[in-house]
Specification:
By secondary structure, this protein is an all-alpha fold. It folds into 2 domains: 67 residues, DnaJ domain (Helix Hairpins, Orthogonal Bundle), CATH 1.10.287; 82 residues, no CATH class.
């Protein structure tokens, strides 16, 4: 029922106004905002006609006033804010010792590049490709090369542990 907002505000009248006052306001605003006039608007005249259609009928106006009073009595529940931002889970605490430059932007603001390398190497790869991260490219390349060597060594150790040793049956 309240799709057009407050009908009294649409017609720019007081809720206690008499029918003749509401009719005069509708006529004046309809002349001003009719689509054939240069300042006219189809949406505005539709809202004006809808408001006049309800407020000119005594029973429809009474029903509208009742619904309006009920809406004021019941507090409006705030709608939760919808964010389309894709948030990436953050580590609970900083990992490792601070080493290298400290970022003052983004989700890792306050973290050093060394700490980010231990927590999220993919972020460093992304940062190296962005314009804001170009100033850190040498440092990022060194950290990624070190983490790649470390990962390769860890993978080799893990593979060696999985191989059956001669003389043992697994």
């Amino acid at each position: 029922m309240l799709a057009f907002g407050d009908l009294y505000k649409v017609l720019q009248v007081d809720p206690e106004a008499e029918r003749e006052v509401i009719r005069a306001a509708h006529r004046a605003l309809a002349l001003k905002y009719h689509p054939d006039v240069s300042s006219g608007s189809h949406d505005r005249i539709t809202a004006l006609n809808h408001a006049w259609g309800i407020l000119r009928n005594a029973s429809a106006r009474a029903a509208y006033d009742h619904a309006r009073a009920e809406a004021r009595r019941t507090p409006e529940v705030p709608k939760p804010e919808v964010s389309h931002e894709m948030r990436t889970p953050m580590p609970a605490a900083l990992r490792g010792k601070p080493s290298g430059s400290v970022l003052d932007f983004g989700r890792y603001a306050g973290w050093s590049l060394g700490q980010i390398a231990t927590a999220d190497a993919v972020y460093l790869e992304w940062l190296a490709r962005t314009p804001i991260g170009r100033s850190f490219n040498r440092e990022i390349d060194a950290l990624l090369a070190t983490s790649t060597v470390t990962k390769a060594a860890a993978t080799a150790v893990a593979r060696a542990d999985r191989r059956p040793r001669p003389g043992r049956r697994g």
